[in-house]
Amino acid sequence: MQGQEKLRKLEQRVDGGLVALVAVLIFTVINLGIMLANSTFYLLFSAAVPYYLTWLGRIMDNGTLDGTGEIIGTYTNTALVMAGVILAVYLLCAIFYKKSRFWMALAAILLLLDTLGLAVVAVFLLEDASGVILDAVFHFWGLWQLFSALFAAGPLRRLRNAPPAPAPAPAPAWQPPQDAQQMSWQEYLGQQPGPQPPAPPAQPNQPWTYPPAQPNQPWTNSPAQPDQTPPQRRSTTPELDEQKPWQP
Fold first, then answer.
1. CA–CA separation, 178 and 151 (whole Å)
2. What residues make up the domain containing 51?
3. Please, what sign has the CA dihedral across residues 84, 90, 96, 99?
4. What is the sign of the dihedral through the CA atoms of 59, 62, 66 and 68?
5. Which is it for the CA torsion 233, 235, 241, 247, positive or negative?
6. What distance in Å separates the CA atoms of residue 77 and residue 21, rounded to the nearest whole number?
7. No. of H helices and E strands in the chain?
8. Four-residue CA torsion sign, 188, 193, 196, 201
9. 94 close to 22: Cβ distance less than 8 angstroms
10. Most exposed among 20, 148, 185, 248, judged by the fewest C-beta atoms under 10 Å?
11. Phi-psi region of 186 (alpha: psi -120 to 50; beta: other; left: phi over 0)
């Protein structure tokens, strides 16, 4: 049970890194499309380097400080090509994410470099850096998910490749002995499952036989028993005892 719980937690960490990687890829593509539509709307959790490269290309093509304009010139197209290459690497990392730890490590390194690029943009290109605070928070969350998945991938693979633990053999069901009818009840109870008191030493089994027949004897009364009448007390006047009884 503990092994299954550990396996489930490791799988959750690996899946969390993949979710963060796919979210970065999707939101970056959406933000680039919004920028090319000449809108200032921005979604959080976007890769900073592809987005701000395209933003710089828009500034250089249109001559505006906010990157808005209808012109999509050479600088914008060059920035889009570079952004496309970076996003293609993100996509490869997402496709082969669970095939090898190399792609996990590459995705984590790309997002780490992107976080450093966001810091450079916030310090040197933006007048108000407070607008990228939430974006930085999401970057740190993505880094946490990817590096956590990277360190969980190794133990997860070893746990999956480990041979399964042998299942404990079931306890054999108790069966009465074949010669139970020839055993004494003490020996029979001694073979019951569970703790039993020590049985006395076994005695050799003897086949039971009827007692030998007795010859017929004629029926007689029981012998007479001696008289058990207590002796009479002798009188102290024997002369009176010898007198004959009175006759009328």
1. 61
2. 2-160
3. positive
4. negative
5. negative
6. 25
7. 7, 0
8. positive
9. yes
10. 248
11. alpha
Distance CA 141, CA 45 (A): 10
247 SS3 class = coil
State the Cα–Cα distance between residues 19 and 144, nearest whole angstrom.
12
How many whole angstroms separate alpha carbon 31 and alpha carbon 52? Answer: 10
Q: Hunting for tokens 């790309």 — which residue is that?
A: 110
For residues 179 and 23, give the distance between their C-alpha atoms in angstroms, rounded to a whole number: 74
Tally of CA atoms within 13 A in the half-sphere of 152 that contains its CB = 20
Q: Is residue 242 part of a domain?
A: no
- Measured CA to CA, the distance from residue 74 to residue 79 in angstroms comes to 9
Q: Is residue 139 classed exposed, middle or buried when 0-12, 13-18 and 19+ CB atoms within 10 A define those classes? A: buried
Q: Is residue 185 part of a domain?
A: no
**What six digits make up the tokens of 124?**
């040197």
What pTM, to 2 d.p., does this model score? 0.62
Answer yes or no: is 137 within a domain: yes
Task: Identify whether 93 is part of a domain.
Answer: yes
Higher-scoring residue by pLDDT: 232, 22: 22
* Residues 20, 150 contacting (CB under 8 angstroms): no
pLDDT digits 0-9 by tens, 14-31: 999 999 999 999 999 999
> For residue 48, which of 138, 125, 145, 115 has the smallest C-alpha distance?
115
Question: Considering the chain, what is the average pLDDT of its residues?
Answer: 77
- What residue type is 69 in one-letter code? G
